[in-house]
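Record type: monomer structure entry
Structure origin: computed from sequence
Chain ID: A
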Amino acid sequence: MRRIILIGYMGAGKTTVGRALSKELGIPFYDLDWYIENRRRKTVSEIFAEQGEEGFRKIEHNMLHEVAEFEDVIISCGGGTPCFYDNIDYMNQQGQVVYLKATPEVLYQHLIMGKGDRPLLKGKSKEELMTFITEQLKQRETFYSKAQYTFDVNVMDNNEKINTTIEKLCELLEL
């Protein structure tokens, strides 16, 4: 039985890596945000709007405990998932946790394209976005660094580099 749990800041490529790793290993992939949306029949943005971040984090915590019981699975978590409740400790007990680490500049480039889809980024100017990413990343690093593995994902800007990333990640995890 294998569980691989991907964590990191929004825009780090957790879904991209999760999908590619799932294809490579032939085991199912679950994006925790998508799982929540399917189970709750609402988007993450709608849940944030209706229940605030605290309400969303409670739902996220419960859904993490549900999906992390699945066997032979790859899970990508939202950027804040490890930072609330006992989530990071629970994840470390359930499987191999990999922190996909990227610089604030790389994250900014990834997020600037789709910031409207992310509740925590709505309404921020480009300058505010860069400041927000840098400050929040510093706060979250304490939690992210508790992962069993840290993996640099600064170079995933085309399919060839993504494939190389997956090969190196498989080596790291001894897959």
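Annotation 1: The radius of gyration is 15 Å.
Annotation 2: The first strand starts at residue 3 and ends at 7.
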